[in-house]
Specification:
Blueprint (H helix, E strand, L loop, with lengths): L1 E7 H8 L2 E3 L5 E5 L10 E4 L3 H4 L9 E5 L8 E4 L2 H12 L9 E2 L4 E2 L4 E2 L4 E2 L4 E2 L4 E2 L4 E2 L4 E2 L4 E2 L4 E2 L4 E2 L4 E2 L4 E2 L4 E4 L4 E3 L4 H7 L11 E3 L5 E4 L4 E2 L4 E3 L5 E4 L4 E2 L4 E2 L4 E2 L4 E2 L4 E2 L4 E2 L4 E2 L4 E2 L4 E2 L4 E2 L4 E2 L8 E3 L4 E2 H12 L1 H30 L1
Parallel strand pairs: 3-4, 4-5, 5-6, 7-10, 8-11, 9-12, 10-13, 11-14, 12-15, 13-16, 14-17, 15-18, 16-19, 17-20, 18-23, 19-24, 20-25, 23-26, 24-27, 25-28, 26-29, 27-30, 28-31, 29-32, 30-33, 31-34, 32-35, 33-36, 34-37, 36-38
Antiparallel strand pairs: 1-3, 2-6, 21-22, 38-39
């Protein structure tokens, strides 16, 4: 990636806040996407352990590395390389094509809606009755905002995001394209006892009669607090009663499903393709890695980490790290996997021991019979 201009290492260090080691006049003009494929003129950022182990293979003109790292090329030592990268890329990012302040002539805005100052509303946006849009908020093309929605200041709604009636969104919230906020939850009931209920109660035989699922009205809403980001094509369902809540600073990745009445704390990370069933409570700073599935009505403790593809069927304690399906403490799961890999070998050893035991028993029985005679 081409840098906006050729930079000296010492100038870059001043900008990102780091210490130059080596020649501060070293110039870089491009940012290396892969540190191990870097060439002369490139700047490489090395923070991943796998790259740091192979740092001698890096051919970049300069690098950004964690403080205390041994590096033979001129480099900037920083405490947090990824944070340094965030500052640098923030300054490099190209202009985004967002609509200018004002309302595009194709937008459809109810006359009872309230639009703040310096708001940008793009083509074909729909804003329903009684909704409020805060100052400096940008709403890009084809967004649909229902009635009685409240969106705070300095928010950014990317194209095609859908905000249903009564949703409440705080300040500085980013909604990525295609996200759906406030759709109905998956809530149904049958007039007669369902076969699922029969199974749980141990009742047989199962019924073969028609027993339609009746939709339970969802009369609650969704509340998204300040500084959240909701990823592309993520869905967050409104509550059956009350609110589905996303706490301040929480980041929800692409293709995430959060069901009705969930209560997610502050600074939580919910990563791609995870699904959170209804009425779950996730405490502050917990992390759900990719493709995690949570059973309904469970609680995840603060600072817990749910590793990728875990299936969580019961509450997870504060600070716990779990993995697998059903999810277990990471050490216990890895121990089980290690033993499982030795299963065939252990089975063969057991068979061999059993054979020896059988032979010894046969010998003892033979001796006993000979003594009896």
């Amino acid at each position: 990636m081409k840098l906006p201009q050729e930079l000296k290492l010492k100038d870059l260090a001043f900008f990102i806040g780091g210490k130059v080691v080596g020649d501060g006049d070293t110039k870089v003009s491009t940012f290396a996407m892969n540190p191990l494929a870097a060439k002369e003129g490139d700047l490489a950022v090395l923070f991943d352990k796998a790259y740091l182990k192979r740092i001698d293979e890096c051919k970049a003109s300069a690098a950004i590395v964690p403080s205390g790292t041994k590096c033979s090329i001129p480099h900037i030592a920083v405490d947090r390389p990824l944070l340094a990268m965030q500052k640098m890329l923030g300054a490099m990012q190209p202009k985004r094509f967002i609509p200018p302040n004002g309302i595009h002539p194709t937008a459809v805005i109810d006359e009872t809606a309230t639009i703040g100052e310096k708001v940008a509303i793009g083509p074909h946006v729909v804003i329903g009755p009684g909704s409020t849009i805060g100052d400096n908020t940008t709403i890009m093309a084809n967004c649909v905002i229902g009635g009685k929605v409240n969106i705070g200041r300095n928010c950014l709604l990317h194209p095609g995001s859908l905000i249903a009636d009564y949703v409440q969104i705080g300040n500085r919230v980013i909604i990525q394209q295609g996200a759906s906020i406030g759709s109905d939850g998956f809530s149904y009931v049958t007039e007669k006892m369902s076969n699922i209920e029969r199974r749980l109660a141990g009742i047989t035989p199962l019924s073969k009669e028609q027993n339609s699922n009746l939709k339970i009205p969802n009369i609650g809403n969704v509340i998204i607090e300040d500084d959240c980001e909701i990823g592309a094509n993520a869905t967050i369902d409104r509550a059956t009663v009350g609110s589905t809540k996303i706490g301040a600073g929480t980041k929800v990745d692409n293709l995430v499903m959060i069901a009705h009445n969930c209560n997610i704390g502050k600074d939580v990370l919910v990563i791609a393709q995870s699904a959170v069933a209804g009425s779950c409570k996730i405490h502050d700073r917990a992390i759900l890695a990719g493709q995690v599935g949570l059973k309904d009505h469970i609680t995840i403790g603060a600072d817990a980490i749910i590793e990728a593809q875990a299936g969580v069927l019961s509450d997870i304690a504060e600070d716990a790290v779990v993995v697998g399906s059903p999810a277990l403490p990471a050490r216990e799961h890895l121990t089980n996997v290690a033993y499982g890999r030795k299963g065939e070998q252990m089975y063969k050893q057991l068979r061999a021991l059993q054979k020896k035991v059988d032979e010894l028993e046969a010998q003892l029985n033979g001796k006993a019979m000979a003594t009896a005679k």
